[in-house]
Amino acid sequence: MTQKASDLFIACLEEEGVEYIFGVPGEENLDFLDSLSRSKKIKLILTRHEQGAGFMAATYGRHTGKTGVCLATLGPGATNLVTAGAYATLGGMPMMMITGQKPIKKSKQGRFQILDVVAMMGPITKYTHQMAASDNIPSRVREAFRLAEEEKPGAVHIELPEDIADEHTDALPIKRSVSRRPSADPKAVRAAVEALENAKSPVLVIGAGANRTMTGRMLLQFIEKTGIPFLTTQLGKGVIDERHPKFLGCAALSAGDFVHRAVEASDCIVNVGHDVIEKPPFFMKPGGAQVIHISSKTAEVDPVYFPGIEVIGDIANAIWQMKEDIVPSGSWNCGHMLDYHKAEVEHTASLSGDARFPIFPPHLVQQVRDVMPDDGIICLDNGVYKIWFARGYSAHRPNTVLLDNALATMGAGLPSAMMSAMVYPDRKVMAICGDGGFMMNSQEMETAVRLGLNITVLILRDDSYGMIRWKQANMGFADWGLTYGNPDFVKYADSYGAKGHRVESAAHLTEVLKHCRDTPGVHLIDCPVDYTENDRILNVQIKELSAAL
Known about the structure:
Elements: E1 3-4, H1 5-15, E2 20-24, H2 30-37, E3 43-46, H3 50-64, E4 68-72, H4 76-79, H5 82-91, E5 95-101, H6 117-121, E6 127-130, H7 137-149, E7 155-161, H8 162-165, E8 168-169, H9 186-197, E9 202-206, H10 213-226, E10 230-232, E11 247-250, H11 258-264, E12 268-272, E13 290-295, E14 309-312, H12 315-325, H13 335-352, H14 361-371, E15 377-380, H15 385-392, E16 401-402, H16 413-423, E17 429-434, H17 435-440, H18 444-450, E18 455-461, H19 466-474, H20 489-496, E19 499-502, H21 506-518, E20 522-528, H22 534-548
């Protein structure tokens, strides 16, 4: 018996356990859409822009470890997925992009809308393929999912032309394979342990690749046994509860922060799950601290990153091996590192009580932390507020602070929060967006309302592209070319069927945040912010205070 190729494609996705397909279909997807309409296992989530669909699919992958799937047509639909594809690949999120195409065997439309989408997707994906025969669908889909999910996860792409989708075939789906990551070599583990035991002031740096459930468990056990302090990169936030007494902070600035001084005081750095995609949490130099690289893949050598010892394999297993082997040294001296973090906490506390209006960023961060439960999820778009939240917002559980410090794209905050609310409907979810980033995908408010989601969208309004404006001022340039007007966000929210709120004071902010947290539905909060002291605090004061220690 044969079946239509598009039916086979859907059957293959069902075999992979796909729950949702996010997207904006076009003419070239209609066979696929018809087959999807008969699926009892996969739900179509129609979005208002392909980029929103891609960000949702990537966030699904980030939360679940399973491949999120998004759909677009050829040409402009496919190009609109490019940013989301790069976001997933750089951020380590498994995602599949499916795009349509004109018939490849016989077409009467010339080159209308036709781009070489496979070549376009090549540099930003782990795998890209045009289906040229329906019999190959099972193997190509299985291969794409395998590559999307293996370390380091990322985006894959399959192009399904109209005429291939309409073929008939007797091929059947291929079942998922069972695979395990290889264990780290015991000799490499022994070398790492020996270096740690001989160190005077070791430290752990937890990066994006360590954000896996079992790895977090092993790291906590390792820290509890050894007492070695730890810090995180922005993508490593929450791997271990940041209320832990050995926590040193999050590397949010480029250099000169309290946490950077702590790392500089170390003579042996264990870098767990590091990827040079992220801004470096420290800079290596010849003759400097010993650096141990623990990851599922070898280190990508960079002018500021060239580790001397590499432990390659399953990260959780590597940390377990090290924990079993290591004998904590009585001569380790890490107290001075913790002093840096104590000073950072005191400095942050001195700022967070400032109840001025428009809202002062450190006060805003503290208010959000106070109203969100331990398992609440905040999804940050990209702007200068990301630095304030990375430094000052204490993450208590993994994947409760979703920020993007890899591609660092604007426009992802709202779709990311929408997906978080779908994966975890019983948890509190808040999107935190600048007015610039929010407007890049604000149309997805309609999608959120249509889906009946429970989310709060906190817009930090400064009527400008604030991070670039801050950098402009820091470089001594005139304040020019980065300000704009905004809609009335309260009316804008109401027009979508959401509920709009406007913050009128610091005390009112607390009331509004609590109300939105406790009231079902889609809420939007227009919150004016005061960024005038960004440069003085982040570029001058923090560096002076940390240097004085």
